[in-house]
Structure to design on (219 residues):
């Protein structure tokens, strides 16, 4: 291990040099690339990336399941009722819009808000993330429909299992998770997994190259 005249080793200087390189390159990037580069800097070990492909979807589904339990049926909302009965045409409107039997829940709000955020960052990735968010919402709702003990058991099991995979990956990486330095890492994580899958299939090569040039190659 080499040391500088000031007594600081190359290893000690590496995090600083990495942050300096990222900050300079980010000035030329759009917001999507900036967020993915920041997140990628904490995920250069291929084993860590692999654990995220399983761990992050598990966590997302578990969160959707937790948040799908407190739900209100559309037919129970005050604006759909009048004098103890539904407003004329309300049931027909629900059916026409595909809302019959649907419920409003915190999980639905999270799905919509997350999808809008991803669409704002990038249209193509945003559309794909919106589809995956709806799928996660549906899976979470299926778990939430179970009886109380099975819902809680499955949700906790999936949630803990997902975070266990994350912890293993970052043990191999030798770095803490990105969200510990920037809370936005929690919402960028799912996008990072989808982007990495796209890059592996040959999509958005220019984006992948700019991210790797800044964050460094995987190992």
């Amino acid at each position: 291990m080499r040391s500088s005249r000031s007594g600081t080793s190359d290893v000690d200087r590496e995090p600083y040099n990495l942050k300096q390189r990222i900050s300079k390159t980010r000035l030329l990037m759009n917001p999507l690339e900036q967020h993915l580069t920041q997140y990628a800097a904490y995920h250069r070990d291929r084993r860590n990336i692999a654990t995220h492909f399983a761990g992050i979807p598990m966590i997302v589904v578990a969160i959707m399941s937790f948040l799908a339990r407190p739900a209100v049926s559309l037919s129970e909302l005050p604006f759909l009722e009048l004098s103890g009965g539904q407003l004329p045409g309300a049931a027909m409107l629900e059916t026409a819009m595909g809302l019959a039997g649907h419920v409003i829940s915190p999980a639905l709000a999270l799905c919509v808000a997350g999808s809008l955020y991803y669409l704002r960052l990038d249209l193509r990735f945003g559309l794909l993330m919106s589809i995956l968010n709806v799928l996660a919402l549906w899976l979470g709702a299926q778990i939430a429909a179970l009886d109380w003990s099975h819902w809680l058991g499955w949700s906790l099991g999936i949630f803990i299992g997902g975070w266990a995979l994350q912890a293993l990956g970052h043990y191999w990486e030798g770095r803490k998770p990105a969200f510990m330095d920037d809370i936005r890492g929690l919402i960028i994580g799912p996008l990072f997994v989808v982007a990495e899958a796209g890059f592996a299939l040959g999509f958005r090569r220019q984006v992948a190259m700019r991210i790797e040039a800044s964050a460094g190659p995987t190992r």
Summary: Strands lie at 72-73, 81-82, 85-86, 103-104. The chain has two domains: 29-69+112-215, 71-104. Residues 119 and 126 are 4 Å apart (CA to CA). Residues 1-6, 8-13, 80-90, 92-101 have pLDDT under 50 and may be disordered.
